[in-house]
Amino acid sequence: MKSTAKSELFRELPSVDELLRLPEVASLAAAHGTAAVTDAARTVVARLRAEVASGLLESSALQLALRGVCGAIEERLRQALSYSLRPLINATGVILHTNLGRAPLAEAALAHIHETAGGYSNLEFEIEAGVRGKRDVHVDRLFRQLLSAGATSAHVATAASAVGAGQSPAEGPATVSTIVVNNNAAAVLLTLNTLAEGGEVIVSRGELVEIGGSFRIPDVMAKSGATLREVGTTNRTRVNDYEQAINERTHLLLRVHRSNFEITGFTEQASTAELVMLGRKRGLPLMEDLGSGSLVDLQSFGIDAEPSVLDSLRAGVDVVTYSGDKLLGGPQAGLISGRTDLVARMRANSLFRALRVDKLTYAALEATLLGYVKRDYDAIPTLKMMRATKAEIGRRAEVLAAKVSSSRLKVEVIDGESVIGGGAAPSSVLPTRLLALTCADLSADELSARLRTFDPPIIARVEDGRVLLDLRTVFADQDEALKTVLIALSH
Ligand SMILES: *Cc1c(COP(=O)(O)O)cnc(C)c1O
């Protein structure tokens, strides 16, 4: 009996062709194209068929579903044609949030992508000479300008011998070179492979860290073809430990920035100066994986304990690797800055071809670096967010709170802390003012989930039974959208 009923139900299902002839569906096809609408109609019919087959839809339920079939096709079409990668409002107060796309790009970076990537560009072309060029020239010149002050006599001497007669370093800051790869993990891989393949690299046990997103030095080391030589203990490593591990197979000394954690208490670490001296004495290059790598002195922004790229180069580190989308505030990229002769070897490595970046990255990076050259730090969103004061953020929070608080939604402005994130300055927090929300009929987790259902979704923190919104990471022109959402939630 049941199967007879089912086969009758199957006969009531419309064909895709029949659906396409319905006026509502035809007008969808006129607007969005027949191909996409046909796919959507097919999906909807297949779903109905499956529901009938599984006994989920009885006769009356099927009639109901068929009356809503145009709406179902439209909804399916909307899902299929909408973006998966979407903008959202980051109200977490974590400036470099790896899950939320790390550094938002500067306006100038977006504009430069727009003007260069929509058409052809001189990515690898020397316009005047009319010959093939190199893609790294576009940013190398700016890095030279920003980092030349960090060149030590060692960089100069080595660069002079590498460049050869006729281009003395005194003629310009031709002392520190920089190349760009896909991300800092790639920068570390390329550097290790170039400088230490088949040999040993000495690293302190206290620096063998895993960085969010499963970046592990031992794994990258293995892939690079170099052998890891661990020295010292988790909490104490002296320069003598490095020295004793040096043998004829040693190719490189490596220091890794601990990024997302700090070891405190009974600790000892060889200083950069000691490692530089050891490297020079034994003829070994010293590499530092900075991870975050800032191009400005963050101390002037009130953020401590985060060495800049310049600090490392000035101290005599031969090669520094760092991310483009952490403290630098640019696009995802891995930067390798250091001795010109060593960087030239990396450029010549065939792995560089596999790890290089495209024109979008060069455009965004060049525009971001120009912000540094002009000292226009407010043009770089991450730097602007870092520099925003508690008082400024508090004023914006008070304005919002006054407009949205209700008997259903209680909104208070309280003291709190923002963090930089991205493994930068793990112990450094930025004082801020937070909007603390409690809702009469929703738990904090439910309220936070509700905030994510809006368009754009709002991502908040939940702490002590409250939803916390930190306006430090909310762009000022998003306050209005946030207000609209909070008003909607307040009644
Ligand atoms: C973040 C980080 C990395 C990985 O950089 P990506 O740009 O994410 O590939 C490597 N090393 C250190 C020390 C880091 O902080």
Architecture blueprint of SSEs:
Blueprint: H1 2-12, H2 16-21, H3 23-32, H4 34-53, H5 59-67, H6 69-81, E1 89-90, E2 94-96, H7 107-117, E3 125-126, E4 131-132, H8 137-147, H9 153-163, E5 176-181, H10 184-196, E6 200-204, E7 210-211, E8 215-216, H11 217-224, E9 227-231, H12 239-245, E10 250-256, H13 272-282, E11 286-291, H14 309-315, E12 319-323, E13 334-339, H15 340-348, H16 350-355, H17 359-373, H18 381-387, H19 390-404, E14 409-421, E15 429-439, H20 444-451, E16 458-459, E17 461-463, E18 466-470, H21 479-490
Parallel strand pairs: 1-16, 2-14, 6-9, 6-10, 10-11, 11-12
Antiparallel strand pairs: 3-4, 5-13, 7-8, 12-13, 14-15, 15-18, 17-18
Bound molecules: pyridoxal-5'-phosphate.
Give an overview of the whole structure.
The chain is α/β, with parallel strands linked by helices and 491 residues long. It folds into three domains: 3-81, no CATH class; 112-379, Type I PLP-dependent aspartate aminotransferase-like (Major domain) (Aspartate Aminotransferase, domain 2, 3-Layer(aba) Sandwich), CATH 3.40.640.10; 385-490, Aspartate Aminotransferase, domain 1 (Alpha-Beta Complex), CATH 3.90.1150.180. Helices cover 45% and strands 18% of the residues. It contains 21 helices and 18 strands. It has helices at 2-12, 16-21, 23-32, 34-53, 59-67, 69-81, 107-117, 137-147, 153-163, 184-196, 217-224, 239-245, 272-282, 309-315, 340-348, 350-355, 359-373, 381-387, 390-404, 444-451, 479-490, and strands spanning 89-90, 94-96, 125-126, 131-132, 176-181, 200-204, 210-211, 215-216, 227-231, 250-256, 286-291, 319-323, 334-339, 409-421, 429-439, 458-459, 461-463, 466-470. The strands form five sheets. Strands 5-13-12-11-10-6-9 form a seven-stranded mixed sheet, sandwiched between helices. Strands 2-14-15-18-17 form a five-stranded mixed sheet. Helix 14 (309-315) links the parallel strand 11 (286-291) and strand 12. The radius of gyration is 29 Å and the shape is globular. The protein starts with a helix and ends with a helix. The structure holds pyridoxal-5'-phosphate.
